[in-house]
Amino acid sequence: MTAIKYEEGYSALPGVGIVPKPYQLWTHPQRTWVEAIYIAFSVAWALEIVSHLEELCFWLFLINVGAAQTSWFRSVHFKCWVVGSFLAITGLPVIAVLTRENPLKCEAWTIFVGSIGSLLITLWFLRVLWLFPAFLRRVKTEGAEPEVVVRLSTFHELNIIRVVFRFMFVLPLLTLAADGIKPEHNHVNESPFWTDLLAMLGAIGCIVSSIITLLIFFPRSIAKEAGYKPRQKTMSQNSRGVHVGARNTQSQAQQIASSPVDIKDPNLYDEPLQQPQYGRPPAIKIAGASQRAAATGGGVWDRVGPESTNGGGGAWEMVDYNQYQQHGVILPTVMPRRGSRRETALHPMVLNYTSPIDLIEGWDESDPSPARPTHY
Q1: 288 φ, ψ (degrees, to nearest 5)
Q2: From the DSSP assignment, how many helices (H) and strands (E) are in the chain?
Q3: Backbone CA torsion sign across 117, 123, 124, 129
Q4: Nearest-CA neighbor of 61 among 124, 118, 116, 149?
Q5: Among 105, 109, 93, 106, which residue's Cα sits nearest to residue 42?
Q6: The organism sits in which domain of life (predicted)?
Q7: Which is nearest to 124 in space by CA: 154, 84, 67, 89?
Q8: Which of 83, 139, 182, 243 has its CA 20 to 30 A from that of 281?
């Protein structure tokens, strides 16, 4: 349409002056394109409404849903998106077809209805902005992955900027369209200054908000693009900071980090070493679990049994005496942690969030009763 208008140029009308050539004076081949162009324009705007309505319903669903509630495809938010998408895809093209005989009227009504739909979606996004900080705090409290928290925080910051430009996009075009659908006294559209100013503001708002939408729908991961992978904890790394015996200090524990433990060291034991007798070799008790946890913060030396009632060291880690007889030196072992598994109140789509259009990653939507997610 822009190319056609520039090709047709301007014309001098008596009593009006030099203005862009009215469509009635266009050459016949150019006029045949007008109807198809405005119908395509209405379809494009309808798809824009569909994409933003999906994102709005997605965030309202994610903010209000719990871990044991229904899936996205069985939620009322998804049904609202389907109904709204159907109305947008059918409504705007129908309006363009019904008003196609008058291109100026077709343009005004298409922009008016499209601006109303986009304005309603933008106003509802204010509710998302209002509820999102509390939702983000809940995600952090429930212990979501740092990468998920970063993505959600980035979305919130981008969405604040995008909503501002969405208003810059919708309000100027709505003003022009509302003035254009009037049968007479089109004061805004008759002023070249206001027409150009509002049109440029709407174009800038549309371009910037669309770019931000692409950044939200297709987020970049600089770490993955650079080939960075988090280092996995190894057994030797998990064994660092071992503190054995009540007499060892924190500095001594750091000195023996990742080093073999000499079982002949007298400071290693909390009670005198018993001499083995005939029969089955006895087991050696190595450092109370509570003392090891006090030095290491409950790392690999977590207790392996219930804590005693008198606040003592709890259960001991048992080491076979035959291993000492053969090698004389033992290495710290990694003990499984108990009691660290807990449930989360977050929906699986929150725990696996990547993008508003990546809806089922990490979760089987076909499961009618999905298990409550857990993390360690």
Answers
A1: -60, 145
A2: 12, 8
A3: positive
A4: 124
A5: 93
A6: Eukaryota
A7: 84
A8: 243
Distance between CA atoms of 157 and 24, rounded to whole angstroms?
A: 48
Provide the CA 46 distance to its chain's centre, in angstroms. 25
The CA-to-CA distance between both ends of the chain, in Å, stands at 58
Q: Report d(CA 50, CA 63) in Å as an integer.
A: 20
User: Across the strands, what pairs with 285?
Assistant: 318
β-strands 329-330, 261-262 pairing? antiparallel
Q: What angle do CA 289, 275, 291 make, to 5 degrees?
A: 15
Nearest Cα residue to 180 out of 251, 106, 232? 106
Question: Residue 365, exposed/middle/buried by CB under 10 A (0-12, 13-18, 19+)?
Answer: middle
Q: Which residue has the tokens 């919708």?
A: 170
What are 225's two structure tokens?
């693009």
CB 240 within 8 A of CB 257: yes
Q: Per residue of the chain (376 residues), give pLDDT as tens.
A: 788 888 888 888 888 788 888 888 888 777 778 889 999 999 999 999 999 999 999 889 888 876 556 678 888 999 999 999 999 999 999 999 999 888 889 999 999 999 999 999 999 999 999 999 998 888 888 877 788 888 888 899 999 999 999 999 999 999 999 999 988 888 898 888 999 999 999 999 999 999 999 998 888 766 666 666 666 555 444 444 444 444 444 445 445 444 555 555 555 555 554 555 555 555 444 444 445 444 444 443 444 444 444 444 444 444 454 554 555 544 444 444 444 444 556 666 666 666 676 665 444 444 444 444 433 3
Amino acid at 160: I
